[in-house]
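User: We ran a pulldown and think these components assemble together. Before we commit to crystallization trials, I'd like a predicted model of the whole complex to look at. Sequences follow.
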Amino acid sequence: MTSVGSKPKLAVWKFASCDGCQLTFLDCEDELLAMAEGMEIAYFPEATSAEVEGPYDVSLVEGSITTAHDAERIHEIREQSRLLVTIGACATSGGIQALRNVADVREWIPLVYATPGFISTLETSTPIADHVQVDLELRGCPISKSQLVETVSALLNARRPRIPTTSVCVECKARGTPCVAVAEGTPCLGPVTQSGCGAICPAYGRGCYGCFGPMESPNMAALARQWRELGVENADLVRALRTFNANAPAFRDASAELTR
Amino acid sequence: MDPETRMLPGEVRVFDPAGLERLVEALVEAGYRVLGPTVRDGAIVLDEIASAGELPHGWTAEQDAARYRLRRRDDDAMFGWAVGPHSWKQHFLPARARLWRAAAPAGQGPPTIEEEPPPERPLALLAARPCDLHAIAIQDRVLLEGRYVERDYALRRRDAFVVVVNCGVPGGSCFCASMGTGPRAERGYDLALTEVLDGGHRFVVEVGSARGAELLAAVGTSPAREEDLAAAHAVTDEAVFRMGRSLDTAGLPELLAANLEHPRFAEVAERCLTCGNCTAVCPTCFCTSVEDVNDLADGSAERWRVWDTCFSIDYSTIHGGSVRRSSRARYRQWLTHKFGTWVDQFGTSGCVGCGRCITWCPVGIDVTEELAAIRARDGEVDRALAR
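Assistant: Here's a predicted model for the assembly, 647 residues in total across the polymer chains.
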């Protein structure tokens, strides 16, 4: 992906987020050295204070856009990046902080901050793709370590990363977990949620709570009917949809529909 | 010579519940990796078992569309249930299997490719169901008997020992009687058991192969009496009448071919989650994809075969995009392949009537109901469009 002999330059950027996805990068214990060997980590304040100027071959972007300053900064990053990969629910859908999108952020600020006057924020939290062209999205809260390694490995080997956009059910069945909805009557967002987590929650007997956001063709109306048949009130489904991916279009529109 | 060692295929014997323990021991001693039903995570699943004590002793399961509930029986039956969420596909065609590894050490010539070695032990299936045997035969046809042989499948399938258990308690989603695939196994097994509760808990066993006879010799059996044979037949005869569902199979390929624009496909698309559960639990769905992974450090690479599903957009993506963007198109592809074009392609239906797709569909889409609905308005729309 770069001229022979030079390592690709990687930058890791942070917007409104908890840093958990960046930590997933550092959590790649077995692969971390190989990744650092294969790439020049040019900008990654979470890991190193050393800083190499752009342009960058790959930018990993964590976090959502919640301030006017960030809305400008993401354009600068895009200009300096050959490939821009968003990582995590905040960057790909707006994150849990996008709950403000269905509320009045000005009402919330005094409840949260002792000195509201210092807070300068947008009315909404929006994903990076609402502002600039994004080349690849890694979903999740946090992202999956194996999907991150797969992405880096693919980029270093000039191949397309394999990031399925099918449902969590595909992974759940692959690991042999009996369906918690069918066998236990447990409400589960798995059928409408994108795979990537390895279907962790159902493997521990609980329903998926959608942290990887909507799958490629989510049938929200059918899922809502199923949850009602399992005895779930609409208000509770709305709460389930309004978490880490509250602003992902399919979840956002379904929860709006259910509160209408 | 012990009379038991002279048992021949076709012979029928009887053993008591303790014999089942000896059967598992004999399989383990013969070097098999024994897979059988066991209770885990609220369901009867198929897993490696070390003893008959791990079998779902005294358990059953209620099944209906989108509903499965494990229940205690009021007797000691081992096999008083139908099929669970797993099928043997998980062991012959695993969800993820490495096919080969390639290493290319720097400066040491061309890469070397090392195919995945065969499994260390052949598999023994304990308590496959008659419908499962039909499903295995279908996968054999697809994966072994075509122009291209699936090597990994062949290695796992080879030498597998099959103990089928005829069905006495069909599930609410079962319709094997309609498909002609059960509840009694006709062939494809080494041993066929029927669990009899009336007149004393015992197992009537039919010998299906020479090695079945050989293994049974280690179990300790007695000759089957007339009343044992009658009791065993009564178990499966009764099961026919307790099928949860039925399907009119007359001319299904023609019916489906004549109804591609049937309004039912749009209706089912309203309900379908396109989650892929039906294809994952189906014991005959064989579609897979390959993925290549490479080690960041040493440059080695691996090729894995993974389950795929016609319910994914990517599955039908070709130059220019997916040819089945809508869930209507994807459901129609699955249903018409399973019950229609499968026959043209492989000579049999792709469905064995196990009902797993009905039970494990989160929204309870029922193939027997869908096909009946299509039949009820056979050809109306397609004929109108053709005019």
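The two ends of chain B are 76 Å apart (CA to CA). That may be worth checking against your pulldown data before setting up trials.

User: Thanks, that helps.
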